[in-house]
Amino acid sequence: MGATGQQQYPWTTRRTVDLGVGRVTHSFLVIPECPAPLLGRDLLTKMGAQISFEQGKPEVSANNKPITVLTLQLDDEYRLYSPLVKPDQNIQFWLEQFPQAWAETAGMGLAKQVPPQVIQLKASAAPVSVRQYPLSKEAREGIRPHVQRLIQQGILVPVQSPWNTPLLPVRKPGTNDYRPVQDLREVNKRVQDIHPTVPNPYNLLCALPPQRSWYTVLDLKDAFFCLRLHPTSQPLFAFEWRDPGAGRTGQLTWTRLPQGFKNSPTIFDEALHRDLANFRIQHPQVTLLQYVDDLLLAGATKQDCLEGTKALLLELSDLGYRASAKKAQICRREVTYLGYSLRGGQRWLTEARKRTVVQIPAPTTAKQVREFLGTAGFCRLWIPGFATLAAPLYPLTKEKGEFSWAPEHQKAFDAIKKALLSAPALALPDVTKPFTLYVDERKGVARGVLTQTLGPWRRPVAYLSKKLDPVASGWPVCLKAIAAVAILVKDADKLTLGQNITVIAPHALENIVRQPPDRWMTNARMTHYQSLLLTERVTFAPPAALNPATLLPEETDEPVTHDCHQLLIEETGVRKDLTDIPLTGEVLTWFTDGSSYVVEGKRMAGAAVVDGTRTIWASSLPEGTSAQKAELMALTQALRLAEGKSINIYTDSRYAFATAHVHGAIYKQRGLLTSAGREIKNKEEILSLLEALHLPKRLAIIHCPGHQKAKDPISRGNQMADRVAKQAAQGVNLLPMIETPKAPEPGRQYTLEDWQEIKKIDQFSETPEGTCYTSDGKEILPHKEGLEYVQQIHRLTHLGTKHLQQLVRTSPYHVLRLPGVADSVVKHCVPCQLVNANPSRIPPGKRLRGSHPGAHWEVDFTEVKPAKYGNKYLLVFVDTFSGWVEAYPTKKETSTVVAKKILEEIFPRFGIPKVIGSDNGPAFVAQVSQGLAKILGIDWKLHCAYRPQSSGQVERMNRTIKETLTKLTTETGINDWIALLPFVLFRVRNTPGQFGLTPYELLYGGPPPVGRNCFCT
């Protein structure tokens, strides 16, 4: 649904359209419920159409010729390019010999041995009634003969039903005739799903022996209408029909299985399959394939095909089915079936299928790329290395980011079309003979050729290709070959139907599968591969460096021959001499650990390196650092400090240990990507660790169990590292900082307008570099830089115009035309315009104020949504003298939290308050809070109940904090309000008050920290 509440409709890809006057590309809007195809002004303009009205009926023409509009589904587009199937020259003979088997001579069929079908509804289904769409007079007149004919045949009957779905007349191409189509989507939603057993066209022809090369193709006419519908299920498919001429008004419904019903193909396919089971048994000399209502009969000789065809027509007539004589292809060497051309035991893509793909223009959206790959993917069996050719296009299928069609994409797009035009003929699989699968892997793509022997030759049955998943793509070449074989063997099973298969690859794979490496793949994945490959029907032939799969066109720099086991040993780790067995001799022994935990809603982290008796290095880490990142940083620092030395490093982190020993080599192979193909976490830390691994002279990284209470040296060293890391989390950040020399600052570049404003200043000076200063030493910024400076301050504070000017005037810079700049910045700030309330006209009131900082506080709880880390409340303290604010995220709104903050935060920093004011909330009137106030001698003043104005200062601060959080969230897109809270506190602590001073200045006696190093470069 769109923003207006109206239904949104999709566009097709750009299709090639023949307008009679020329060909154009055009995208069509898909509106399934539209009663008639509509021609937009854009397409009418392209065809140069002329619309005239004669005898009340509009006529559309171009070049004085009528225009005929053909509507069809994209799946059937290839039929536009299909040559007309020529009627069999001897069809009259078959019509006369078997009159009851043809729809042209026997009329509508009725399956005699199939009972009426009962449709099962879902348990929660209720009747649905969809109004009939308005029908044009022409469309209604077009479907009237069909409706009357179906009523006369008893297929449509009157009914009164709570169910109703609309009728959609569809115009037949090239005629003024219409056929009725019912929109049953709402009924389909309420009917139970049944498992679809319709054969897969992908492997249906695998059951056709290649030596049976005489074919007959039959298409059953009105197949679904051959099955009866049970009277209890007939009301489900009712529709509204009005025919005043015939005196008929009301609802009609179907007594036969309707078209458009989701389960109709499966129901009919199973019924016909059961009815023809006896024919298959009695005629083993022919093969009968069935895809819903399309039948293919094949025999080894013409005589077998003729006899089988006669028997099949007799069987169909006895069962009550009717075939279409117009579409029949009887006893031919070459036929078209399911979009394939069959001849001599081989199959081709039809020219219509090829032209459908070739006519597709270059995509302009990710959806169009997916449509192209799906359409071309139907033909992938005929395209050697399809996955390799399509590899550049796969990243474009994702909707993220801006769509960019580069030259390499066009090259891949054209290569697929070119390969399709030269598609070879493929032999039909013979399931009585074994198969041979040649496999190779290049650039993360598995490629294979499935073949069968014919005398001394091997004939291709299919070209297989598939992209490896991101995990397998990061393995060494030998292990990638195992993944490639497993994937292609699984795909080949769809064609071999479980027949024996021999695998030939340029690697010694069988030994690796039976004795897999212990570092590269999980047990679950290896077990899956072994279940596919270590079976009786899969045989590994000796490795072949050159085979049909390796000879598929592809540039490569990899060596052809190698020792797989030796290669795996070499590619196991980042550093060849890295071991997990402690070194002996004169070596150092260090222990590393990282710690990360949450304190009052803030994640504290630290890392440490110890030798068991003393601390080598310890440091706190930036807030929010995870435990895994801390472990990596600790191990990296130990490696750097041990440069040029021999050392044993113990860690209890499996993550850091595996990164050093195993994952480093994997990341080297596939890049810094996860198994899902996304960028890994802690990328910079991992890169630093992999680089630091080469610094020590000799190195062993050993994993030891963590949190052990044993007294051996290793356990004690690990305990010390853990203890020091936790202590370091609350200490000083000692991470080494890289200092870069400062470049000399260039002078300011002033414009003519800037000089005019500068000259208005009473006294100013200019340095040799060209920078101007006021008499009080403030640097004058050019208008552009001044605007950026004010914008930066506003992004941090979101102050209003008045307070923003006051804050800028306290800085070491002079901003030209400051009032106008500040007003413009505030007015153009989207978060401020969305959040700020209209100014109040109520005069300011009076409030109590402390005599010095920290003497008088107002305190209140406010709820902040959504909760983060379990913190849903904010405890706010406001010093009434200076306006200084302290705010603490809390999980609960209790008196214990209030007392704890007063003792741990307010008292150590500001001393014991003399007065605390609050409302009558439970956390403030509780015995804990009042008892603490009594012990410390605090005068706790409870304000008037149900009157927020009594706590006006803290209540106004709650609103300011929430407004600023909302602005920062809108501006940054960050929903973690705890992470944004420090910026909010910065704003409220540096907002000038009624005397022009900020809380920071009143508390510390100096200007706020918004000077040179923060904003200007």
Automatic annotation (TrEMBL):
Domain Peptidase A2 span(s) in chain numbering: 1-43
Which InterPro entries does this chain map to?
A: DNA/RNA_pol_sf, Integrase_cat-core, Peptidase_A2_cat, Peptidase_aspartic_dom_sf, Retropepsins, Rev_trsase/Diguanyl_cyclase, RNaseH-like_sf, RNaseH_domain
Q: What keyword terms does UniProt attach to this protein?
A: DNA recombination, Hydrolase, Nucleotidyltransferase, RNA-directed DNA polymerase, Transferase
Query: CDD domains annotated for this entry?
Result: RNase_HI_RT_Bel, RT_ZFREV_like
What highest taxon heads this organism's lineage?
Eukaryota
One Gene Ontology term of the biological-process aspect is: DNA recombination
Q: Identify the residues that the record assigns to the RNase H type-1 domain, covering every copy.
A: 584-730
Q: Report domain Integrase catalytic positions.
A: 849-1007
- A matching Pfam family: rve
> What would be an example GO MF term here?
aspartic-type endopeptidase activity
Positions of the Reverse transcriptase domain: 151-342
Q: Which family does it belong to?
A: Belongs to the beta type-B retroviral polymerase family. HERV class-II K(HML-2) pol subfamily.
Which PANTHER family does the protein's record reference?
Answer: LRRGT00076-LIKE, POL PROTEIN
Name of protein: Uncharacterized protein
Q: Which organism is it from?
A: Sus scrofa (Pig)
